[in-house]
Structures are given as C-alpha cells and as structure tokens.
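Cross-posting from the modeling subforum.

Setting up a comparison between two proteins and wanted a second pair of eyes on the formatting. Protein 1 (sequence, then structure tokens):
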Amino acid sequence: MSLKDCHNFSDFRKLAKKKLPSPIFHYIDGAADDEITYKRNTTAFDAVDLVPNVLKGVENIDLSTNIFGKKIDLPLYCAPTALQRLFHYDGERAVGKAAQKFNTFFGVSALSTVSVEEISSLIDTPKMFQFYFHKDRGLNDAVMERAKAAKFDVMALTVDTITGGNRERDLRTGFTSPPKLTLSSLFSFAMKPMWGINYLTKGKFELPHLQDYVSEGTSTAVSIGNYFSNMLDQSMNWKDAEKLCSQWGGHFALKGVMSVEDAKRAVDIGCSGIMVSNHGGRQLDGSRSPFDQLAEIVDAVGDKIDVICEGGIQRGTHVLKALSIGAKACSGGRLYLYALAAAGQEGVERALNLYRAEIERGMKLMGCTKISDLNRDNLRFRSK
C-alpha cells in the first residue's frame, strides 16, 4: 500500500499503521477507557441525513469562511496536536506547509516539537497556538509571550485536560514522550527500522516551549496522561481563563467546551470563539459527541462567537452537516495525523485535498454554492 492508494480516512490510517511502531500508532489511534466516546464522535454524524436541492446552478463553489477575524479558503483546519515529530520527522513543519497551501488555519500545540518562532518564519497562513495551563506560572508567561511575539493569530486555552484521561492503549504499549524501549515494545520498534533511523538521524526530539522549565516529556520519559495529571494546574478556573484572555489581548478561544453553560461563560470572559470538543474521546469516556452538542451551543452563542466543531470528522459530508447546524468551521487531529505518519507533507496535502474535493462535491450535490447556503433545512434528524 502506498500514498496513491489512500482515498479516505481509513486508507491513511492503514498506511500509518504500516509505518509506525505500535506504541506510536496507538498513541494517535487510541482514546480513553472503552473508547465509546471516540467511536461516537464519528457515528453521531450518521444520525442526521442530508436533504439535497437540485437545479441550483452550482458551477462555481466558494468554500471560504471567516473565523477569528481571518478568511480561510477551506472550512476545515488542522487542530493543534502534540508530539508531531514522533509521527514523521518533519512534524509540524510538514503540517504547517500543507495548511498554507490550502490557506487554512494551522494549530500549534504547547507540546509541539517545533518552536513558534520557526513555524512563524516558515509559513504565513493563519496560526493558532494551543495553551496548556501549567502549575509553573513562569512557564505560562514565557510561552504566551513567545506566541505573541511570533504573531500567532489566536490563543486557544485547552480546558478539558484538568487531569489525564485513562488511555489504556498507552498503558499496554508503554508509550512515553520521549519514546523508550522496553522488553514489550522492543520488537515493535525493531520491525519499523526506517522510523527508528529517521528518529535518530533527522534532528533531536525536543519540546521547545517546555524544555527550559520541565524535564518531563523531553529528557524524562513520561506518559501524556501522567504529564497532564502532574504538570497542569488542576486549580484552573474561570478567573484564570479570563486573566489569560486579557493578557493575550487578541482573539482568544476555549478548546474543549461541551455545555451551553460553559459556552455562555466563554462569551462573558471575552472569548472570540470556542471549540466544541471532547479531546478526540481521549479524556472523559461516556461523554457526548461534539456534533450531538453542537445545535444547542450554536443556538445559545452562535451569534456572539465563532463556534468550531472539532472531533470525529472523517468525511467531507461530516463537515457539511456541522456547517448546516451552524458551526463556522470544523477541525480535527487524526484527520491529518494518519496522513502525516503515512507520507509527511505530501500525505497531509493529499488528505486536505481529498477533504476539499469531498466538501466541494457535496456542496454541488446539495445545491449550495457558498457556506452560508447551508442551514438546518438541509438536514433531517433520525431518532436517537
């Protein structure tokens, strides 16, 4: 199987599995507890049917949308995800360059393996920095100032990792950052020699935003669940979020909002937007899917802030359904991470191109020529 054989989300996943050692693949692929929410994030879209209109003159389609004060050409963007250097040696560089080609947002994680300064020098596509609220206030201040100096367009505070989710696949495979060989994982790494060669020869694994303050994750191997539980500040509250919003002074978002009450509070503290997200099912298993929560959140705050639907998206039609509910755009991690692991920048470009083609084709078949044509009249909800 090669990149040219990848035509959808599932194909990229299969190729990524062939390329990555088991602990690395299952870190992307896994979720919390029984992974019920992880699966539900995608199957939720099946409960809604699209109702197309015909004879609408759909020769020219405009897929652009406006979020956080920026016009992007695709209503789908690359959500910030950690540790991308583990999935492909070009890591965030590859994803950022691919996002730029499609003029869409690129999200950079606080746990990224490439610095905000380098990303800013490489690409001029709209950029979002994802912020984790650490116990170390000096670290928090330094990271925010670096993102501000690098002229990132949006600061997104992740609010759903107040403690680490129970990611049992990581416990079974022994996944840590940085990776470490164990008796149980040795065979898996040995079976993927090119990954090991690239990891050892294509530059040192680093977490440039954190390593001057904490050893965990860079020089000291740690699971992501333990990192969240031990390094992040569990006392974080609405006053802290409001202070960060004020300190940033630009477009500010909360990533991981799932309730109407929290969405309204986000408006009150000055947020420009929210990502309706459950962290890809990696935190609270048994929780609702973002798509299932989207309508009530849009109804409550959609006229005041940008509402982004994040999680479970595997098809262009999923994007169309979320936009029809009222989301301004969609985002996701796995939707490009498998492609990154499969073939680096070329893989991410192919994935984004396929999504763009699916969205455009779906728009034409729906009888819509621009994003604002999509609305709930296009949908019918099955009983759940």
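Protein 2 (same layout):
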Amino acid sequence: MSPPRRFLAGLQTARVWIALGVLAPLGMLLVSGFMLAELRHEIWTRAEETSRNLLQVIETDIVRNVEITDQALRGLIDKVQSPLVAEAPEALRRMVLFDRVVTADGAGILVLFDEHGNGILNSRYPSGAGGSFADRDYFQVHRLDPDLGLYISKPYRSRMSGAYTVAFSRRIAKADGSFGGVAVATLKLSHFTQMMAKIDLGRDGSINLIRRDGMRIVRFPYDVRDVGADLSGQPNFQRALAEPDGSFVERADRDGVHRLFTTTRVGDLPLILAIGLGTEAIEAGWRTRALMIGATLLALFGLAVTLALLCGRELRRRSAVEAELARLSMTDGLTGLPNRWRFDEALRQAGEATAGAGQPLALLIVDADHFKRFNDRHGHAVGDEILRGLGRCLSAALHRPHDLLCRIGGEEFAVILPDIDADGAARVAERLHETVATLAVASAGIPAGAVTVSIGLAQAACPVARAELYRAADAALYAAKHGGRNRTCRAETRPAAPHLRLVAGTGGVGVP
C-alpha cells in the first residue's frame, strides 16, 4: 500500500478520531487560555497606567499647594523681618502679613511664633491663643537645626480648631542669626481627603501620603486611627522607600487586602504618595469574562470529547463488523477453514515470501475419495459431517504454525507448506492419511478407515508461478485418483511444464 493510502487508512481508525476529537478542543482551550492570559496582562498594565496617571494628578496638586504655602511662609518671613513692618501697629501688621489668599479656609492659618513658642501673630485667632507651642515638633526641629529649610510636621490635632492638621514651617532668624522663632502655615487633613475623594479608586482602593521617615500623614478612605501612624517598620513601606517610583502587588499591612501598589516621590519634598488598587476590583471584569469563556469552552470540550468517543465507538463497531465480514468472506461456512479466496491470497503471499528468501514451497491438494457415494447413500447432512470431520483431522495433522489448510471447493482441500522440501511435504501428506483414517461418523454407521483421501503434492525449490504450482499439484492429485485413490502422488515442478514421478502413498503407490 502506498504511503498516502496508508495515511488515509490510518485516519479512519477509531483511535485517530478520538485523539483528534480530544486534541482539537484541547488546542482551543490552550489558545483561549493564552488569550485570557494576555487579556489579564493588558488589564494589569492598564491598571498600572491608571494608577500612575492618578498619582501624577494628586502629586501635582500637593506640590502646587505646598509651593503656595511655602511662598506664603517666605513672604511672611521677609515682611516680618522688615523694620517698617516690625514697628507698625498690630492691626496694620496683620493686614500687611495676612492677605486673603493665605487666609482662605482651605489654606488653614498662618502663625508667627517667637523663640519661646508663643504665638505673636495669627491669621485667624488672637495673638497668644493656644498658649505655648514649644512642644510641637516643628518648633523643636527649627530651634535645633538652623539650616533645615521647609519642614513638614507630623499630623496633629489643632488646639484651636480641633481639626487634624499638618504644619509647614520655616525658621525665623534674628539679625545676629540666632533663633528668633518659627513661621507656620497649616493645612487641614480634610483638604487632602476632599481632593482624594474626587478620585474613583474602585472597591478596596486606597491612597496614602507618608513622610519619608514612615510617618503617615493621611490615608483615604479616611479613618482618624490612621493619622500619624508609624509605618517605618512595615515591609510595604520599606519596599516603597527602596523603589519610590515603582509598582508591586502585596497584601496591605493595615487591612490585609491584596492590592496593586504604585508609589512616587512628591516632587522634591520628603513625602511618598502611594495608590493601592484592589486586585479583586482590577480582575473583576476579567474574571467574569474568563469564567464565561472557560465554562463555554469546557462545555464545548466535553461535547467534542463525547462526540469523539461516540464516533470512535461507532468506528470500532464498524471496524469489527468489517473485520468479521472480511473473515467470513475468507472463511468456509461449513468447516470454518479458510476458503478459496483466502487460499489464492495466501498462496500468492507465500510464493512471494519464499521466493524473496530463496526458500522452497510445497502445495498439497487433498480430495475425499468416493464422496458422492457417501452423499447419495447417507444424505447431504452426513456428507457435511464428513467434510467437517475431514477439516478437523487435516488440521490436527499440521504441526507448524505457518502451514495453512483451506477448503477450496466441494470435497477438495489444499495445504500450503512454506519452507519445506519434497520429502518433508511427503511426510506431512503421510500424516494426513493417518489422521483421516481415524475419522468415523457413528450416527451414519461409517467406521474409522472408511473415509480416505487422495493427495497431489507439488514442491518447488526455486521461484515458480503459483498457477504452475497449483496445476502441478492438481495433476498429481489426478494421478493419485487414477492410481487407485487413498494415496499421494508427487509432481516435480520446474519453470517449464510439470513432470510427475512415483512416490509412496498410503493404500498404494503413485503412477507416472
């Protein structure tokens, strides 16, 4: 069979169809899984970009507010150090030092503290309100460090307004350079929370504004317990400190929610801004689609596998039927032996095999003697019983697994004997006579030895056409019949016409 035909024949096997039925939807699952993974990657990339954009918006607003506040502080210090302002009445000084911009409600208050921490001028409250503020961290750091510059305080609760606040401060120096007090501008934490509330972070989202020493200034969603919390020992803060402009996915130290954290430094300020987006919210839409697609594909996969199995079962059933039909087409219905079609094919294959290997091939044609007489006397049922008995006896006489016995028509049988010489074939024929001699049909009163056979033997030691070998064996059988039956006659076969010679046989001798 040519390779293309073998390939097409292979495609018709049940295993191939089952394999294709499983591999095809499995391939679809793999491709869909890859596509879903790519979609998930795109969703996460988009979430990081969104976080980065939000950070930029919030950072810009914070930097702008701090710059405005710092400019107000610098202007306040410049003015307060002017001799003209210092000598003016307090009401006039207040008008000069505190304009409407810096005294707006969102900007908190501006306060001037002397070197003892007492408020000497206040943009909103009377001078001296709240007592001494020397205990505040912004006062202490400026008193100790003359080169500190702008300082952002720890968040605290204002003694005057009661609101949680953060202070921005600068040192005031006297004419001789010694510590002369502190200028402070405050911002309520509500200013930050109102700004952050305008940003939709989705479920489980959060924003944190943290000093670089780990002190949390404000967190959104707002909870007063978060104000001033020390995060310096938290792993997430340490990671944000090491990579201030990066992203990472981790569980939050505060509430254990799994989030995508994106962090950035706030300008040149000692502040870190972090946005956390809940991973559940990020993947919510993707998971819904993945679940729907996955369920659909799994259902299709199950359907395809089921259909493949059913198709495979049907192919196996059909193959079994075809094999049975093929067997029946090659089998004699009465004796169960291979029939004439099988004999012709087997003789061709044996001839090709032995010729290729340089081996001899022998053929025996066996015919029941006086079979018509048994049929006429005892009926066809007994005749059929005799034929079945002959099939059993002849089969029992063959000892090599590759020898083949066939019924080739009526009461005639054939034995193909590969790789055997003439003497060996003659011995096989002798055994056939001996086993047939044991056949008896008790129901018809036919004793053992009553049924005999005549055998024609042809053997070729060199390649010879199967038709020639068959004609030689048939001619030898004809000689055995005319020589008295119950015997074997052997023909010598050559590439030319067959020749016969005498051989010994049961019940008599062969004839030329």
